[in-house]
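not sure who needs this but someone in the group chat was asking about Type IV pilus biogenesis/stability protein PilW from Tropicibacter naphthalenivorans so here u go. i didnt clean anything up, its just raw.
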Amino acid sequence: MRHPMIVLCATAVVALSACEKGIDTAEMDRKFQGVNVIDESNLNEVMLASGDPNEAVSYFQRSLTGAPDRIDLMRGLAISLIRAKRISEGKIAWAKVVDHKDATDEDRVQLADALIRANDWEKAEKVLDTIPPTYETFKRYRLEAMIADGNKEWKKADSFYEVAIGLTTTPASVMNNWGYSKLTRGDYAEAERLFTDAIRQDQALFTAKNNLVLARGAQGKYTLPVVPMTQIERAQLLHSMGLAAIKRGDVEIGKGLLREALDTHPQHFEAAALALKALENS
């Protein structure tokens, strides 16, 4: 709380000194402007890490009213809008960044990411096509893999996923995506392997655990995999495996798994109860 007073005092001293020595006040303002830019850069970083992305959005919007052409503020606004799940506004903000004369290939990758979040896959692909192949980053190849998946270009998708995994130290989410791609293609054994690898990288990734159960269920493997899980997760995985068994035609096994899910869950498990009731009534 004492810092603002110190700054005000320092400013007053410098201003008084300037008057006494006849220093050009415009020159003094320029010097203080340099200090303010440093402080503002720190503030920008703080706002980007803010727990409330909507607060960051408001900050960058206010900042841009005074400096509409500053690309760092434009990026800050675009990042904050995506963090705030305001995807429609975010993709527009990233498009403005990309139109700036100082835009980079990373900005184009971010625009493609925003377009995919907005389910505009065709435009995202066109944006990625403008980026030279020499620009190799994890995010770029992850997006390329997702687009290739959507186009059912399996060979390209596999190649992009493999490159993406090699460009990050936290590949769990990419392994999960790749595994899901294999799952949709019917390559259940390979999907199982990728989901297992994803869980090995991140034991808290429940999506990969659930997908692993689905891959095993599709192969008629109705025992839970040996992976870390809470009691609630165990119940949820039993529920998923029960549904996979029913989908495969093994209805009685599916019923047994649903009952086990109900018994395992520490509270009332509505989804499993409804599924079991529907089966028994039919």
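also DSSP finds 15 helices and no strands in the chain. if thats useful
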